[in-house]
Amino acid sequence: MSVSRRTLLGGLGGLVLAVQMPPRRARATGTIVEDVTTPFSPNAFIRIDERGVVTFIMRNVEMGQGIYTGATLLMAEELDLDPETVQLEAAPPDVAYVDKDMGTQATGGSTSTMGEWVLLRKAAATARVLLVQAAATRWGVDPAACRTEAGVIHHDASGRAVGYGEVAAEAGRLPVPPDVSLRPPSAFRLIGRSHHRLDSPAKVHATAQFGIDARVDGMKFATVAACPVMGGTLVHVNEGAARAVSGVVDILRLPNAVCVVGSTTWAAQMGLKAAAPEWNAGENAHVDTALVYRQLHDGAAQPERGIVAQEKGDAHAAVAGAHRQYAATYQQPLLAHATMEPVNCTVHVTPDRCDIWVGTQVPLRARDSAARITGLAADQVHLHNMYIGGGFGRRLEHEYVEQAVQFARQVPYPLKIVWSREEDITLDRFRPAYVDQIAAGLSSHGNIVGVTHRIVGPAVVARWAPEGLMPNGMDGDLLAAAADVPYDFRASYLDFVRRETPGVVTAWWRGVGGTRGLFVMESFIDELAAVAGRDPIEFRRHHLKNDARAIGVLDLASDKANWSQPMPKGSGRGVAVQFLFGSYLATIMDVKVDDDGSVRVLRAVVAVDCGRLVNPDQVRSQIEGGLMFGIGAALFNEITLDHGRVQQRNFNRYRVLRMNEAPVIEVHLVESDADPGGIGETGTAAAAPALANALAAATGRRYRRLPLLGKQELDV
Amino acid sequence: MRGWFARLASTLFVLSLLVAKAHGADTSSQIARGEYLARASDCEVCHTAPGGTPFAGGRPFKLPGIGTIYSTNLTPDRATGVGDYTDAQFARAVRRGVGRGWKHLYPVMPYTSYAYLSADDTAAIFAWLKTLRPVTATIPANDVGFPYNIRAAMIGWNLLYRPSAGRRDDPSRSAAWNQGRWLVEGPGHCAECHTPRNMLYAKSSSQPYAGGQAEEWDAYNISSDPESGIGGWSDESLFAYLHTGHADGHGTASGPMADVISHGVRYMTDEDVHAMITYLRTLPQQRTNVITDRVSPERLARIGTPTEGNGARLFAGACAGCHLTDGTGRQVPYATLWGARTVGLPGGRNLVQVILHGSALETSMGRIAMPQVGDEYSDRDIADIANYVIGHFGNRAGTVTPQAVQAALANGD
Amino acid sequence: MYDIQINGDVHSVDVPGDTPLLWVLRDVLGMTGTKFGCGIAQCGVCTVHLDGQPVRSCSLPVAAIGTHPVTTIEGIGSDALGQAVQKAWIDLDVVQCGYCQPGQIMSAVALLKTNPHPEDSDIDMAMSGNICRCGTYQRIRAAIRSAAGA
Ligand code: FES
Ligand code: FES
């Protein structure tokens, strides 16, 4: 194991909220249990006490993607446990849980299963070796003659058996072996079979604890307003009026925000309304959506090369000399996350410790920020990570934790801050707007001879993890579905003209670069097929010639969706194929445009090859949900700015797909023994291009701008 | 002209001094009466900018073909409000439409109605306004086109439609009727919106209370006509509507009427509300084509919920959460739709306004609000929702077009 | 002071009458199963039953409740229909993040109470006031069908 016990213990200490639950019931209520007195904790992921209670520590936070269940299956597989009997805990902030790909302790980028696939199985296999060794030593038998089943070690020859708990203390004193072997896939009992989500019962009975549900003795309820224009400052608060509101307790200020504390969230909300904060909008007061797009289109038109991210052959010459040239410009909007659970954070600061109850995708960063703000040492900050009511990238930011700590250090009591939905949307950090310019040359046979592509937009990684920027200044995330494509273009060129969005902070959003790039690439391929007079699937297959897994999903989807069957007038079928996050998807979507112009998404058929399946039904579930999320955004969503202010404030103006607009989704899984790929964001990426292509098929005109139901002229 | 006004003004000034003196011992009751009258006169509605401090003015009024006029700051700020006004100057502005420095106010300020207020009344209102916190609020300059930009033109207008002097009580009528007439014709200034206006923006004398305009909204016929007016309403319904903003079977006040009730009528005494009803009942019948079908919840329950069509689907998602598909409202009575005139008129003018801009009513239970339906719905979507509502709840074929929605949006901004 | 009957128990709460039931449940009574999502009756995560009818607790002033009994997600499992719906939700693995699901379940139980065998279109219409950002609609539909068959 690369993770030592010492690293784990170094990060804990202090608080022990020992919630001892009886075994034999799945524990996944989301509250953290920090119990370091357990006799057996061979690594950062597993603890077993003398009663046999097994606790798995969840490195990745659960925000709907089903990772608690997946991670448990991986460990229970090697440890021979019934997953239902295991207690689950959210990992505390600790370097032991740093994700190498993300550079910090983070859940995101669809990396959870990929990252855990070997790590967690090894952690569990190590634990099993130690437990068996302890039993074998006690009995004086060969460990190889012992087997494990359902938390019990058996020595069949002598008929002896002992539970894990009984040998936990002895196992805890054994040296951790440097390496262990893993069970072969042929011996899997859990991995690859659908298993019910372990967090379902708690969520269905509403005992699951989300960040917003944190309750601490003496806690007061607060809500905040920050300057609606980024960079602006607080000028005036009508304190008298706010204090006159029944239940208002305190009014706290930061240079750019005000927090009203009350005996209930409602009192705080009413107090904030009465406080009627006035702002100095600052230097972004002039920013509007037109400016955002103008800068992007200017970047697209600049004659100089941007950051060259890919150059294969002489693509410009290939396009110029081709039988036929074709070019298109695509535009994508700013998007909000609008997670179902609004931003919230509960903080209690005392002179020698700081407790934070929050749902975060980046616990280490949040903890370290809190330490910096309070002047406490990192180990005096205790962050209790809770269930997250939808992440989609929003909880990869932790500025709301910083804000909450800054307010909470002004008061002696625990402060629970819940943002209004209006605050949640207008003060979100947004998926950037982009403009893409892409051109291709077609041979006389209608094949692609070269592609030149320019991306114009911000480099999110430059803010989020500057060390992640490539040496030439490229944001590698933008390569997804742009440079990293399953197609085999003979010549290709990609450059990136960096234009940071004025007036907002830009951030990760479900599907990140893949969602962005796939809309452009798969829309453009579709247009090329149409120009070449070829069937969109045949055209794709031809250019995918070296990628058997891509062709595999494309053929499967085409078959299941009856691709070759013609659609009635006014209806259309669109396809998108992708290789993102280590997984292959082909998505075919059917739409119908009614006579009155209203659009109905009827059906989506998705073929998935994501390597080895850990929990197949959860792969299905993620594809279904990811698609719905992507369809809503692609059809409806755009964040617009006026005088630096976000104009969408709540769900009445930031429209979410509803059930009577939701298509039927069929997911077909391909059996594969490749290592598992990520899945949580793939469906979202597929939605916009498959829809845009289906709409084009139905109406005969191209859709090059998102949202699809907005006006289609670009803001050049 | 000037001499005439000046003479009148100085007389009023002296009178008000006398009045103030007479009531000097009793300022607290004068202030209380002033607040009541300010409520009854709905000063706050017009003299508050959207989202602004109450009474600090700045609310824009778009007068079709005339331009945009902004309400003044009524807080006692010396520089930008009425802090420097004398009682007489205040009275002259309210009752005669003549502002300080002899600026003639535009007839958006209902001084033709407020002429019914006595100098005592305006002094009381002014006394109360002076208790408000002074707010420095510079009001944008009015933006009106020729010839209305010449304030002196208002002199001519005033000659034609000059505020009438307060009417004497009609001894043949009950005290309640007389009080009701005073409230309705005077401070309540109901006719300002509910009576059609002529080409010169004056109230029609031939069709009083036959329905008019309030900004982008239709103000309904409130004459005693049983079909197109309020003659068919019971006293209980009228009282409930005026007092709470809602009456079962008649829907909930929205738009400007919601403002009038939120900031005005709901503060009035039961006696005064009944007095208004007594008077309203006697308004001559004006038959107009504003006739709606009365669709009962029973009928709606029988029809069931349509599931087909863009409008029906959007309604189920964004609207039925509160209104329910039978229009009975899910939780608070304010969410009922059945019987409301707004859902029964094929043109759907007010309906489109409510959908596009939302509506809010202040009630004894707090603020009851309907959020606007947003940008991400196309003009076609809004028209579809409106036509669905008119068809389902109003039993009429809705004729709302995307163009009409576009126009309503353009005007509303 | 308001006496409100929730899941069979009477609770006395001392709050201004305009306080929405949602905040009485969550902040005053500590019943955090009912969630906050939008505050403007657009998302449905705050759905509870008032007299058996699904209502948006974020937009229901406590003064408007009177003696009408309230049922929340914490109490919905005490009758057979509630149990059937919750079981279907678990059997079909409906939840993802789970934040919207208490509201979804409350709306689903209310639907099945009045319409024990709904068509798909009935389900769609009745459930469209409840947003799910994770996009679990397909499974919600299936779970309601399954609970209706049970
Ligand atoms: S919180 Fe009540 S409907 Fe959204
Ligand atoms: S399960 Fe996450 S919002 Fe519905």
TrEMBL record, chain B:
Q: Where in the cell is the protein located?
A: Cell membrane
Q: Gene Ontology terms, cellular component aspect?
A: plasma membrane
Q: Which GO terms of the molecular function aspect are on file? A: electron transfer activity; heme binding; iron ion binding; oxidoreductase activity, acting on CH-OH group of donors
Keyword Signal appears in the UniProt entry: yes
Positions binding heme c 3 in this chain are C319, C322, H323
Matching InterPro entries: Cyt_c-like_dom, Cyt_c-like_dom_sf, Cyt_C_IC, Cytochrome_c-type_DH, Membr-bd_ADH_cyt_c
Its cofactor is:
heme c
Kindly list the positions annotated as binding heme c 2.
C190, C193, H194
Q: Where is the Cytochrome c domain?
A: 29-133, 175-284, 306-393
Its name, as the record gives it, is C-type cytochrome
Automatic annotation (TrEMBL), chain C:
Q: Which PROSITE patterns match?
A: 2FE2S_FER_1, 2FE2S_FER_2
CDD domains reported in the protein's UniProt record: fer2 (cd00207)
Q: Which UniProt keywords apply?
A: 2Fe-2S, Iron, Iron-sulfur, Metal-binding, Oxidoreductase
Q: 2Fe-2S ferredoxin-type domain spans which residues?
A: 1-76
**Stored SUPFAM superfamilies:** 2Fe-2S ferredoxin-like, CO dehydrogenase ISP C-domain like
Report the protein name in the record. Answer: (2Fe-2S)-binding protein
InterPro entries xref list: 2Fe-2S-bd, 2Fe-2S-bd_dom_sf, 2Fe-2S_ferredoxin-like_sf, 2Fe-2S_ferredoxin-type, 2Fe2S_fd_BS, Beta-grasp_dom_sf, Diverse_Oxidoreductases
Species of origin reads Ameyamaea chiangmaiensis
In this record, what's one Pfam family? Fer2
Q: Which GO terms describe its molecular function?
A: 2 iron, 2 sulfur cluster binding; metal ion binding; oxidoreductase activity
